[in-house]
């Protein structure tokens, strides 16, 4: 059968699968336009029970149905978990968000002038490790490699700082990696263990964690990405199966996996700060202007289009959790495609459609 015929058949099967999940025709159309084989969706009204829906396929070639128990990578949504953890430790007197990172981690350029709060709201000026071309090439050369925080920071610190701390804004994974290291130094426990104790267990999240040896637990869908010929890391129009790419290169900035049920449990507590004391809830939502109209950043949390939460992607997967500030509706969405051929983020685009 010719390629175009196969594609039409896949689209037809996708329509049937989406319809079987109780989706309206326009919802199904919106999902198909975003090119992801599968979407995992959790929604809830402020005073209504959550609804979980799964649509599409776990594997592009085999068309295996996606199911609600599947694990996926959540990318930078991890940052909101780590930021919440740091604020919990602040509440407990184990960390001071106004203290410099040099109190906990040695060797940070200008670390005596960079506070934990500046790390959390991305005003530290520290460069992003993933901006390093050498680091990108190293990930591409060995996508299954499990990276340590120290290895990642070498690529970040080899670059010049972007600005003096507190004078501007720039998103950087380096900041969240350092926040997790501060939490580890202050407690003597790994950031993975701390998240389990302080967030996952209290919220009843039994299927979320740092992947062992970088690998997703079973069951999980295969992950896809559009890149350039021979370069899946960047953006392009060639579809790659990047299921073998782990996210350890992101460390605490993006290396959590979860399920749609667990994401639903986390959305409101993390976005609203219900695990925090009043002072720390204020810090969570102490918004920093970013230079982009309509987009602000708090303590490891985003504010955009009337929503608060966080978006994230790593090769193969894209996820978002958010609460609509006016209506109180909450959303958790994930897809097993990290970007469309047009460079869009499928889960975030679907959220835009569902929340309008």
Automatic annotation (TrEMBL):
Listed InterPro entries: AmpC-like, Beta-lactam-related, Beta-lactam/transpept-like
Keywords on record: Signal
TM spans (from-to): none
Segment forming the signal sequence: 1-19
Superkingdom assignment: Bacteria
Domain Beta-lactamase-related per the UniProt entry, residue ranges: 53-340
UniProt protein name: Beta-lactamase family protein
Organism per entry: Luteolibacter flavescens
């Amino acid at each position: 059968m010719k390629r175009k015929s196969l594609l039409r058949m896949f689209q037809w099967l996708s329509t049937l699968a989406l319809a079987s999940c109780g989706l309206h025709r326009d919802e199904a159309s919106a999902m198909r336009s975003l090119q992801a084989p599968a979407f995992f969706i959790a929604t809830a009204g402020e005073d209504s029970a959550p609804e979980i829906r799964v649509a599409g396929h776990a594997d592009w070639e085999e068309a295996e149905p996606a199911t609600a128990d599947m694990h996926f990578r959540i990318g930078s949504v991890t940052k909101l978990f780590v930021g919440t953890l740091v604020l919990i430790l602040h509440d407990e007197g184990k960390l001071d968000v106004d203290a410099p990172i040099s109190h906990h981690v040695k060797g940070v350029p200008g670390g005596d002038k960079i506070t934990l709060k500046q790390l959390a709201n991305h005003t530290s000026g520290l460069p992003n490790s993933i901006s390093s071309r050498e680091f990108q090439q190293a990930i591409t050369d060995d996508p299954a490699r499990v990276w340590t925080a120290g290895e990642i920071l070498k690529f970040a610190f080899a670059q010049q700082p972007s600005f003096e701390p507190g004078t501007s804004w720039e998103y950087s994974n380096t900041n969240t990696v350092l926040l997790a290291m501060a939490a580890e130094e202050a407690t003597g426990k790994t950031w993975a263990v701390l998240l389990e104790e302080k967030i996952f267990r209290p919220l009843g999240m039994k299927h979320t964690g740092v992947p062992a040896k970088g690998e997703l637990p079973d069951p999980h869908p295969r992950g896809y990405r559009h890149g350039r010929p021979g370069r899946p890391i960047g953006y392009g129009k060639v579809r790659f199966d990047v299921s073998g790419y782990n996210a350890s290169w992101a460390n605490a900035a993006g290396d959590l996996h979860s399920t749609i049920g667990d994401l639903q449990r986390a959305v409101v507590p993390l976005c609203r700060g219900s695990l925090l004391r009043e002072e720390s809830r204020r810090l969570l939502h102490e918004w920093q202007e970013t230079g982009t109209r309509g987009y602000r950043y708090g303590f490891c949390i985003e504010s955009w289009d009337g929503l608060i939460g966080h978006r994230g992607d790593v090769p193969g997967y894209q996820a978002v959790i958010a609460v609509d500030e006016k209506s109180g509706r909450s959303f958790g969405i994930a897809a097993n495609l990290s970007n469309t051929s047009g460079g869009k983020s499928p889960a975030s685009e679907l959220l835009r459609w569902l929340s309008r």
